[in-house]
Structure formats: structure tokens, C-alpha cells
Amino acid sequence: MKKNKKIIIGTRGSRLALWQANWVKSALIDHDFEVNILVIKTKGDKILDVPLAKVGGKGLFVKEIEQALITGEIDVAVHSMKDMPAEIPPGLCIGAVPERETTEDVLISRNKVVFSELKIGARIGTSSLRRSAQILNVRDDIKIDPLRGNIETRLKKLETENLDAVILAGAGVKRLNLENRITEYLDEKIMLPAVAQGALCIEIREDDPRVNRIVSQLNHEETRSVVMGERSFLKHLGGSCQVPVAGHGKIENNSFTICGLVAEPDGSVVYRETLSGPAESYEEIGIELADQLLKQGAGHILERLSS
Predict the structure, then answer these.
(1) Which of 85, 118, 159, 307 is the most exposed, having the fewest neighbouring CB atoms within 10 Å of its CB?
(2) Among 83, 105, 164, 208, which one carries the catalytic annotation?
(3) Which residues span the domain enclosing 178?
């Protein structure tokens, strides 16, 4: 059978990003399209010695790829959805959100010691303000060590920098077949995930009906609804990597439930609420949850840390 016009996928170059892009490629090839992958280095890939909160946040991992999409250098961009800023550039849109992998964060420790049994003053590696704030809220004795880089780099630093543990997104660990390294899946009561964690974003141009028709076949409607509810929560808060914000939703029995959190970076104050409503009202529920947290006092944290 003759192949259709080829499609070029843009992605970052980490092993995980390439896994994600190749997963999309395989799905599109199954539909008889010629697909190539173009690796694009983003600012976030180049700056590895500074916490994201200090160098611009989420857009660092997508801006260059989105620019290649706008100029037509690529036809499809594949991102981790949690890296996507709340605002998408004019002319681009989310073409599909495939079914989500696990949303949980995982602890990977030396000698398989679970979180509750880590020694007093244990050193945990993470550069995520969301993760460190929640860790310190539960255990203020823990020492947080800034940790950037891809999954393999972070696991290597667990040994080379004499850390007691690192915390990573479980989805990435599973996608790279490193589940055997996981010590513990962290309960949401301890570690509420990042908004859209575990989900992929397939981004396309709005004025490209051919590609839209192709990638729409990869969309998982329930995942998309849940993720968009979480993103509406984040957008209404005006949250970014500079502020510890978490949010996780789910749809059960035609009801959308979302838990959201805003915290002080040192974990001394945590605003947390859960809200439910009709499944089709996921965006409105996300916005209402954000409003509830803002009324409680989360706005003071957001305003101070974002200024």
C-alpha cells in the first residue's frame, strides 16, 4: 500500500522524550503514514545547573519545539503534558491526549528504604518545588538537594552524590522499563502529583486538518477531559514552576473529582481541597477549586512567589 505524505515529529532528545515520540510514531505508522523524528534541543535541556523555578519554568522544555511547529519544520510536537504552559501559542492546539500512564510520584532510595523509614536528616534529591514542599510538610527533618537532569542522570546521582533517595514521576520510570528500581509509589496524601503528570501532549497547528485527522485517532477522551480539568485549575491559579502547585483529577461514575494544592516552598503552609461535580463540567470544577484555594489564602503565596 502506498504511503501518504510523510509526517515529521518534533521532540526533545532525552531517552524518555524519544520513547514518547517513538510511541506516537509507531501508532501513526500503524495507520500507514511515513513518519520521521526530529530531535530539537530546548533551553531546558541546555541549562541543567539551575532549578527550573529560577530560569523560567515550564516553557523551557517546549518553546523551541513549538517554534518549529509554527514555522512548519515539523508537523507534530510530542511533549510531556506537565511541561506545557497554561497558555498555548496562537495558531497551535492540542491535537490529542493519549491514555494516561500512572500519575504517581515514586521514591527510589538506597537499600530500598521506604519514605516513612528514611533516617532523620535524610537527603532527598529533587528540584521540584511541588515535591520538596510536600516532603517538608510531612517531614521537616528531610534535607532537599537540588537535582536536575534526565531520569538516568538522577538515578546516577543517587549514588555519586551520596543521596538517600530521589523522587521521580512514576510514568517516566515505567516507560523506560525501570520499575525494578522503584522503592515505593507515594500516596497522594503525602505527594499529590503535578497537573497532567503521566499524560502526553500531541501538539499540532490549528490550520492543518490532515494532521489533525491523523493524530485525533490517538486521543483518549477521558484522559483528555481529566487533564483539561487539571489544566483549567492551574491556569486559573496562574501557577508555574515558581510556585508549589499540585493537582490530580479522575472521572468515576460520571463524576469528575479533582484535588488541588498550593503550598509554601518550605512546607510550613499547605492549602488543599477536593471538589467533585458532573463529569462534563471538568473545566468549571477546576476553576471553582482554584477559587476555593485562592479564598483560603493561596493567592498570597502565588502573588509573593510569582513577583
Answers:
(1) 307
(2) 83
(3) 105-185
